[in-house]
Design brief:
By secondary structure, the chain is mainly α. It folds into 2 domains: 217 residues, Up-down Bundle (Growth Hormone, Chain: A); 197 residues, Up-down Bundle (Growth Hormone, Chain: A), CATH 1.20.1250. Helix 1 packs parallel to helix 7, helix 3 runs antiparallel to helix 4 and helix 3 crosses helix 6. The chain is globular, with a radius of gyration of 22 Å. The protein starts with 11 loop residues before the first helix and ends with a helix.
């Protein structure tokens, strides 16, 4: 494979192989994240700690992103995506195996430290996988591709709570850590197997220089500006920080929320309901894949952001089963937010792609400080604590609307999704149907690749 490679240079087989292999990584951190939220509640029982103290797990997990994501971005800029993936999987396996002595000797501090190591590994994987999937093909379908890949993270996220509800909270396991140690030994084994697979499997390197050259040939030179002037990326990091903080807070308190609604839900049942919430989230993500093939991502994020804010407030104040239903609605509308923010923030970065990816993934660190703020309120009233994530959704919505306005100033209002690289080579048009006609008539190298031309057909 040439050193200067873009997604358009890959054959159909190379594209499908690279896409499938990298997508497998999304399952790894989805499973770890799903288990984390259930452990949060389980440790309250085992160690006799408060809801606020239990959020130290979230602080360690997401604080690792804040610390390590920029380092991962710089590492991959120098050594490439594949070596970054190896580094991430190594940290992931090491952190998981450290759960065994922490459970064996019942040390909550050990769990917090091990979670930090896992978080460092997952920050590497997220910088690599999110960025790689985004640039692996036409920018027009970047949001849809990333939503599809992250859908498998959702599958793993509800598998974690389902395992926990069966093994962590039943019988003698309700007050012990015996099964926790063996689950994480298996998680460590998964990391080792993936590391071996990536070592023996060729993974085409997507070059920043090639992406920049492709943009320049299309008349886009925004990446020639210094990184600090890539405002859509800088503000995208802010939006990602507030959104992830809100999402993590919502999930961290979900089990406690179900129990606290006083409608006869026990803790094991609450854990199972939480897994159903994750299923709702996953279904919403795959629904988003279909919609994002046609609707502009910034417009979609604006609509979903308003819905998230509304359901967060309703969850905080709706009584009984009404609040439970609102929480399910919130999980559905959260589904597309992370990948869409990522693709909006990293689009047209060219030579700044890996640096920008590291910055936006660093926004996952918002999950370190939202849960403690929510936990402090939850110690008095769990339902009312959902006002905290409401603020995060508002900030995210402001970013989405800002991106819509920015796009409208340069190319008119967009209802349909467009390929900006292809669009810049055409005469300026203002209506969405003209964009679609131009796409059909284009004979650029990108469209010569069927798998890049139509993402849905590839899937």
């Amino acid at each position: 494979m040439p050193a200067s490679t873009t997604g358009a240079d890959l054959t159909r087989r190379e594209w499908v192989f690279a896409f499938s292999l990298v997508t497998s990584l999304f399952f790894t951190w989805g499973f770890a994240y799903g288990l984390l939220d259930v452990l949060n509640s389980h440790f309250q029982t085992v160690f006799g700690i408060s809801k606020l103290q239990s959020t130290m797990l979230q602080l360690a997990y997401f604080g690792a992103y804040l610390v390590y994501a920029p380092i991962a971005g710089m590492f991959m800029r120098k050594y490439g995506y594949k070596k970054g993936i190896h580094m991430g999987l190594t940290y992931y396996s090491l952190g998981a195996i450290f759960f065994w002595p922490s459970a064996r000797y019942e040390k909550y501090g050990g769990f917090v430290g091990s979670t930090f190591v896992i978080g460092c590994g997952l920050s590497c994987l997220e910088v690599a996988a999110n960025s790689y999937i985004s640039v692996l093909g036409s920018p027009k379908y970047a949001a849809a591709r990333l939503n599809f890949s992250q859908g498998f993270q959702g599958v793993a996220s509800f598998a974690g709570p389902m395992i926990a509800s069966k093994w962590f909270f039943t019988g003698k396991n309700a007050t012990s850590l015996y099964t926790v140690q063996w689950v994480y030994v298996a998680v460590a084994g998964l990391g080792v197997v993936l590391n071996i697979l990536f070592y023996f499997c060729p993974l085409p390197e997507i070059s920043e220089d090639a992406i920049s050259e492709e943009m320049e040939n299309s008349g886009l030179t925004v990446d020639q500006e210094p990184f600090w002037k890539q405002y859509h990326c800088i503000f995208g990091w802010v939006a990602q920080t507030t959104y992830v903080g809100a999402q993590v807070g919502v999930a961290a308190m979900a089990v406690n929320f179900f129990v606290g609604q006083n409608v006869g839900i026990s803790k094991p049942e609450a854990s199972q309901l939480f897994s159903y919430c994750q299923i709702t989230f996953t279904v919403g993500r795959f629904v988003g894949v279909a919609i994002l093939n046609f609707i502009d991502p910034a417009l979609m994020l604006s609509i979903y952001g308003v819905a998230c804010a509304a359901f967060a407030l309703a969850t905080a104040y709706a009584p009984g089963k009404g609040g439970v239903g609102c929480l399910f609605g919130l999980f559905f509308f959260e589904s597309i937010c992370y990948p869409v923010i990522f693709t909006l923030a990293t689009k047209n970065l060219g030579r700044h792609t890996k640096k920008g990816s590291g910055l936006v993934v660093m926004g996952v660190g918002g999950g370190a400080w939202y849960p403690p703020a929510q936990g402090a309120i939850a110690d008095y009233n769990t339902a009312h604590s959902y006002v905290v994530p409401f603020t995060g959704y508002v900030a995210m919505t402001v970013y989405a609307v800002g991106m819509m306005i920015s796009q409208a100033k340069t190319g008119g209002f967009r209802f349909r999704t467009v390929d900006e690289i292809q669009a810049t080579t055409k005469p300026k048009v203002t209506d969405s149907e003209s964009f679609c006609d131009n796409d059909r008539k284009s004979t650029t190298p990108i469209e010569d690749k069927k798998v890049v031309e139509e993402f849905v057909e590839s899937i």
